[in-house]
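We read letters as residues; the fold follows as tokens. A sample entry reads:
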Amino acid sequence: MRKIFISVCLVISLSAFGQVRWNQTYQEYFNQYKDIAIEQMKRYHIPASITLAQGVFESAAGRSELATKGNAHFGIKCNGWTGRTIYHDDDARNECFRAYDSAYDSYEDHSRFLSGSQRYRHLFKLSITDYKGWARGLKAAGYATNPQYANKLIEIIQLYKLYQYDTAKDYDKFMAKHSKDTPVNHSPLHSIKIFNKNYYVIARRGDTFKTLAEEIGISYKKLAKYNERDKNDALQEGEIIWLKKKQKKAPKDYKERLHYVKDGESMYSIAQTYGIRLKNLYKMNHLSADYRIKVGDTLRLRK
């Protein structure tokens, strides 16, 4: 019977009574991988909510050793596997687990593992929106030994409203595509956040456009261009780095809001904060490109 590797890191999201609590790390995981899960759902007919709940639960939101060192988000052991491997203590010492070149490959193997096994074939007769049936069916078929496994998946799906993805008609192909190219990283990957119809990461000490681009799987020249910078510019810890071309204005709910300039801010830093192209920030405020903002100035963020 297949055993599931559950990282001890899961204590960050479980209470002393075992009840799932809302956790920002989990939400960031879903933001980062929901598009792969939807893509897999459309190809293999596995509910995206189930895939995401299993992935976050078994990989400790992508922070387990198997995930950070082997891109393994589902803790599948090596039975019948001829690809890369990683060894970790589980039911026995130094057990063999499947490892992958990218998180996308882990999601793909998980889909093939379920769809290609006679044990789980009956699940594919269920409705794509029947996440409860899928969760209970996985447990009944011996997917995991944890007696509360089905309940945990259902709690996660309901708490984070993952069921919304089971009826998704489309997904962000940018996120799905570039996850295929994410290399193995021996330190935790940058959390990808969402704002203003775009994606961004927060730079860490030592990051460069090259290192970020390699992790994300896009050209570092493009990454610099999206952020209106030179490709060789040094990055400061805490900077916002956008992964796609910025918008011309802030989101709709900023229509009546103004930004009050604080000490240390620049037009560029404000444009980065809201994911707005710098030239558009100047334009909507009727400012010349050589205007130097000062503390107390007010800026429109959207016309």
Summary: The first strand starts at residue 85 and ends at 88. The two ends are 60 Å apart (CA to CA).
